[in-house]
Design brief:
With 397 residues, the protein is an alpha/beta fold. The protein has helices spanning 17-26, 79-89, 107-120, 132-139, 148-152, 156-168, 170-177, 186-192, 195-211, 255-261, 292-297, 321-331, 363-370; strands at 3-9, 31-35, 44-47, 53-56, 68-71, 76-77, 96-98, 103-104, 213-214, 225-229, 268-276, 279-282, 314-317, 339-345, 354-356, 359-361, 374-378, 386-389. It is globular, with a radius of gyration of 21 Å. The relative contact order is 0.18.
Amino acid sequence: MKKAYAVIGANFGDEGKGLMTDYFCRTNDNPIDIRINGGAQAGHTVCTPEGERHIFSHIGAGYFAGADTYLSEFFIANPMLFVKEKNILGDLTQKIFIDKRCRVTLPCDMLLNQFAERLRDNNRHGSCGTGIFETVKRCENPQNRILYGDMTDIPENVLIQKIKAINSGYCLERAEQLGITRENSPEFFELLENENITINYVSDLMYMKNICITADESIIENYDTAVFEGAQGLMLDRDREDYFPNLTPTNTGMKNVRSILDRLEKRDTEICYVTRSYFTRHGAGRFDTECKEIQNKYNLYDKTNVTNEFQGNFRYGWFDLPEFMHSLKTDRKYALKDKISIAVTHLDMTDGMIICPTGKLMPEDIAYMAGTAKVYKSFGETAENIIENVPVFTRSM
């Protein structure tokens, strides 16, 4: 039977989803990597055994492992950031499929996002500044919604006029709602009225169109292995009201995966929930086990996540076992009879143990408590650093 893996972040993101996506694509035949939520705000780091390193944000993290990418209907495309990533990677060696139903970020979405965050000052939402929330917000109204297929099926001059109409209509109304004015943000209006930005954006879109292949979920049937690559984490899911408003506007768990799998031929499916051996959060918001001292105690560091204008500092904390278990239990309503596994990354930084406020746990301990079929333990940055282990005992949650 064909296989499927769902790589789901269990916490606030940055758990190691890129590493596990790369691993499953390397260790299984004929893989395709499916992006199932979010957009180019994702930063999934992959390091190859040969020393190549890239932070994947648009193209699937299974790229170095030879996997083609399918940007599903639940993905939010950004032509500007796609072209930027493509230029870093050079000539693409794998196919990139894209669904016509993808929502697409416009320059005005990014501008609204960034200027609104600046005005929030100390009350920032922790946004990455790539316009994901504003894209979702704009697309709630069919009049302002432009899907990928809508944009690529019409003449460029017509598309430019449509974008300009959104800029001069919806965007100004939205700016007023967010408190963006000509007095406090004159640069916003200068950029919004700059026609060259729209023209260059459409040029990037056409470039993306020439590289990507239009497809729907049926393309997955051509591959022996489907690896569903999640973005962000379960504690940032749009429905986690206990962490509002510092959330992502998309579903980060199995909900979208289940929707796609239910339309395909049955596959032997494994859901892999990924966590570090400690907790992190990049950006503002509730973080119950945050502990500044833990970084120094264990010499924790991160090559990918650096302090930036919109997200701020990368924060460290103890492993929060109750929240971890709650997140898995909540998401498993979409699991049906799928196999469940847990991946624990960054164990090389914590002597192979999960560090909790009250003591240390072995990865097998939380696998046992979650009733999972398998645990993956990562002691480094590459797929070669991952060890698979089947716990002796398993039970239901």
